[in-house]
Model the fold of this input.
Amino acid sequence: MSVRTIIFFSLIFLLRSCKLDDNRVQGQFGSIESPEALKVVNSSLKVKVNELFTLQVSGGEPPYNFERLSGNSVVNNYGQLTADSAPELVNVRIRDNTGFYLDKNIVVYDVGQLDPTFGTLGIQFFKPNEAVEEQGKAIKIDAMQRIVVVAQVNNGGTGIDFVLARYLSDGSLDSDFGVAGIASFDGGVTGPDIPRGALIDSNQKILVFGQCQRATTSGDFCFVRFDSDGHLDTTFNGTGSQVFNVEAGSVVEGVADVVEDGSGNYVWTGQVETGDINTVVGRITDVGALDGTFNTTGYRVFDGSLSNTEDRGLSVKLDSNGKVVVGGYAFDTGGNLMEYMILRLDNLGAFDNTFSGDGHFVFDIGNTNHDISQSLNIKDGLIYIAGRTNNGANTDVAIARVTDSGVLDGTFGGGDGIFTWDGSGNDDLTGATSVQFDSSGRIVLLIDTVSGGYRRPASLRLSAAGDLDLTYGNSGIAISSIISGQSHTSRAAVFEDDGSVLVCGSVDTVSNSKDVFISKIWYE
Done:
């Protein structure tokens, strides 16, 4: 054999012996291509407890060998993992026939458990000021799967401000947003600026809304818009914010919920307090001006009970025909009992008389004095309105389904259009603060309950017909495995594409009264 041939084969041997970052030589040497890199091709490396999971491997030189490096689950030589405990991370080494190897983590989870790949063991805390109170109010996911959290923060100086933070999918702050991941808004006076919620619009701009106090008022309707980088968007009213009132004088006004319409405008609901409390529904344009085509003034004030007593609009959606549907609660005509309330208006702000005869539907859940709707959603032309009711002794979760014509749907729940849940004797339920639908059309309600002496986020799942889904969690409820020894109050939730739910709210602490928490909880 010639020296030249020996050198050639020696180089080939050295190349096959190297282990680069992807554990396989890439590119070409002379006329010989290297084999395809060893890789795992599963779309997800997450498995539910008690289910069988198989690693799918390509590249390298088969056959492959599988070795568990850490974790309790068993992995056999076919790459099959039997997930028998959760939550845990199972680290598996995949080795090909030549000795090249690749290490991968597999997440084993169960319904209601925290995802350990997010933040610190599934939870992230947001506390820009350690010495004061902070409360999480909204959580949204943008088109790039980044997580936007809105909080109210007592800055210790000029009062309470709007504060936003953006996180990457692993729960780390996104340094490209605002200043080191954080943006804020201060209305400029010592009074509170209190956010109630947020939306990410079709242009990926972030609209935060709530109540802002000016020097001459007790609080006004307030909208603040940020661009996708976390800076105030000056194309919105020239300043990035729009603060206005509908009643002169020192009255309390605030926005409770907003939805974007098909023209890029924002339809909103809230309330104004002038002795009694009335619902307000309005629309502002993409540039931050009140839309005069809506009821000529850009808003409409409505006394839902028609008896000059309290009513509040708390949630708003648009149906498939572009009609405005508002959910909340109102006192009955006698001014004694709080009841669920739904309003429906056309896109000009006039009441839709095809809905319940006059555009509004107020109904009782259980002949008690404490029926409050907190969330509304629409699916297939049916309106789902959820919140709480009082059974005479304690609070129950309640959801009702209303038809397009404005009557209770007798095919839902107990045959009267209503489902209630008493918490199996738990006397400390907050009711449903969010109603959403999973990919199978089942209904998911976000609630808070007490477990082990502390308040925890939890979810209920119902069938599309309004029956408790006993296959979900523990007989229909999944209680989150949040940090023990602290109470957590959830305020908002959003589904992720991977079958998990992101929840934000407030956690009681020792050093101050509350911090914001963000948790990633497995749904299924």
